[in-house]
Design brief:
- The chain is an alpha/beta fold.
- The strands form three sheets. Strands 3, 4, 5, 6, 7, 14 and 15 form a seven-stranded mixed sheet that branches. Strands 10-9-8-11-12-13 form a six-stranded parallel sheet, sandwiched between helices. Strands 1-2 form a two-stranded antiparallel sheet.
- β12, α9 and β13 form a beta-alpha-beta unit.
């Protein structure tokens, strides 16, 4: 089957940029991709014909070497993808014709090892057969490539690190994005009250439709962050929230510390509002690191918890067992489902990445090679 396939295409990051947008404009290209030479693959490998790949925030940071995992350029981006197996090695555990989801921690540019160069922004990807999940019944390829990264991150942050419980109130920032919506879904699934925030009122109404109990617009209309402490306090009878899920950072973090109850848990999930904390071109360091006010942390007796979902798995794979079991159970029940905001063709990859950078859509952006 593989020999009969025509030449495809793949996206290539030729070298790191100073910033993600610099890499996007000057160092990213599309080139022809012949079917993989299977004689060079391991007997447990398979070849996947990629049908959908998630366009993630991490893909953008990685292109400038500002992410903790740094594949050597040139490499093919695309952390998570779904498709059909078109070739299986003699010792592979997945048969040709299987509809699968790639495990973005076990294969592709965020993985460690020989399969790091096989990203999902391509017609073909080679992967170890044990790094593939079956596509759940009732879910399409667009949804499949959008499941695990978002829901695993949200689960790790809210449940394992945040210990969110039924009856508590959680403030979720960046709620219209892939992981933000996943956090809304999971928080509601465990019985919490959700206050979701974002910059755009129209997108927040979509988040409300996805289960958020309350929504708060954080934009001041001039590119800054408005004071939303009083809004949160009014929704919590003056007490403040039990948990903050902060994937935004910057001024949103500061205002959030004023909107929590005594003894709250503050979960550091990311810093989308201040992406240039590290040097570009993979030079590492954090010359522009975010800063939290220690006086508020102390006086409110706050627990500030870092929540690196991917790093935690690379250090201890056992942390993943519980969250994968929970996510699979919810998928089987149909109680969680990713929202697809927009799909693009592979040749539109620059538009897709810009749309992600600018947070134009609610939910996940995908490309379809």
């Amino acid at each position: 089957m593989l020999r009969a396939m025509e030449t495809g295409h793949r996206v290539v990051v030729r070298q790191y940029g100073d910033t993600p947008l610099d890499a996007l404009e000057h160092h990213l290209g599309i080139e022809e991709q012949p079917p993989p030479d299977v004689s060079s693959l391991a007997p447990t490998d398979v070849v996947v014909r990629v049908r959908s790949a998630q366009v993630g925030w991490v893909d953008l940071l990685m292109m400038s070497g500002q992410y903790q995992h740094m594949p050597d350029p040139p490499y093919c981006p695309g952390l998570e993808y779904a498709g059909e197996v078109v070739w299986s090695g003699p010792e592979a555990t997945v048969e040709p014709g299987s509809r699968v989801i790639a495990d973005g921690l076990r294969t592709g540019p965020r993985s460690i090892g020989a399969h790091r160069r096989w990203g999902g922004f391509a017609t073909f990807a080679a992967a170890p057969s044990d790094a593939l999940f079956p596509l759940p019944d009732g879910y399409g390829f667009d949804e499949g490539c959008s499941i695990f990264g978002g829901y695993e991150t949200a689960y790790h942050c809210l449940i394992r690190r945040g210990e969110l419980r039924a009856g508590e109130t959680v403030l979720i920032h960046g709620a219209s994005g892939t992981t933000g919506l996943a956090a809304v879904h999971i928080a509601k699934r465990v019985g919490a009250t959700v206050i979701a925030t974002g910059r755009d009122a129209e997108k927040l109404e979509r988040v409300r439709a996805e289960g958020a109990d309350h929504v708060i617009q954080t934009s001041d209309g001039e590119g800054g962050v408005r004071r939303f402490r009083d809004d949160v306090k009014a929704l919590t009878r003056g007490e403040g929230v039990d948990v903050v899920y902060d994937a935004v950072g910057g001024d949103v973090s500061l205002e959030s510390l004023r909107a929590v109850r005594f003894g709250a848990r503050f979960l550091v999930v990311g810093w989308a509002a201040t992406p240039y904390v590290a040097r570009g071109r993979g030079e590492r360091g954090a010359p522009n690191a975010n800063v939290l006010p220690t006086n508020l942390i102390m006086m409110k007796s706050l627990d500030v918890r870092g929540c690196p979902a991917a790093i935690s798995v690379h250090r201890d794979p056992e942390v993943r067992v519980e969250r994968l079991a929970a996510i699979r159970k919810w998928l089987e029940e149909g109680s969680i489902r990713p929202v697809i905001g927009r799909s693009f063709a592979l040749e539109e990859i620059r538009d897709a990445l810009r749309a992600k950078w600018e947070s134009r859509y609610v939910g996940t952006i995908v490309v379809r090679p």
